[in-house]
Amino acid sequence: MSHPCVSCGACCATFRVAFHWSEAQPANPDGPPAELVVPLRRHELVMRGTESAPTRCVALAGTVGVDGHCSIYPLRPSPCRALVPAWEDGQPSPQCDKARLAHGLPPLTPATWNPPPGPVNDASAVVP
Ligand code: SF4
Ligand code: SF4
Questions:
Q1: How many angstroms is it from 62 CA to the middle of ligand 1?
Q2: 100, CA 20 to 30 Å: which among 3, 57, 67, 74?
Q3: Is there a contact between 15 and 28 (Cβ–Cβ < 8 Å)?
Q4: Which-ligand-closest: CA of 86?
């Protein structure tokens, strides 16, 4: 099973992603690159593209619901790390559900992570 987030990206095209300025480069070399953020309030930055509608983070690559994924995943800021996909750890995620629904995608379910076993791959069943 591939991780559902790598074929989604809905949350990156739904919510404003704001965080303290110290999370981004150059203050934090492990944070979002400076050219991908814009000032929001006095001590806050926001991922470019999420500050106004239509929302789409500049770091989101691909098409939402198809191959949408974060192009700066190791450098993503804290709000992105905090938004967990629903049921990955056994807990609901209203933000994940809301984002997916906003983009016409069904919410994740516990079965997303523990799909029921499919038919047994028994070669004898198809070989005469
Ligand atoms: S909306 Fe949920 S499944 Fe989609 S990328 Fe965000 S956390 Fe992952
Ligand atoms: S930084 Fe990455 S995870 Fe965060 S909103 Fe942008 S594309 Fe999504």
A1: 14
A2: 74
A3: no
A4: 1
**87 CA to centre of own chain:** 14
pLDDT single digits (tens) 96-123? 999 999 999 999 999 999 877 766 554 5
- pLDDT tens-digit readout, 55-79: 999 999 999 999 999 999 999 999 9
The dihedral through the CA atoms of 19, 23, 26, 32 has a sign that is negative
CA angle, residues 96, 40, 61, in degrees to nearest 5: 45
Sign of CA dihedral 121, 122, 126, 127: positive
| Structure confidence by residue, pLDDT tens digits, 29-48 | 999 999 999 999 999 999 99
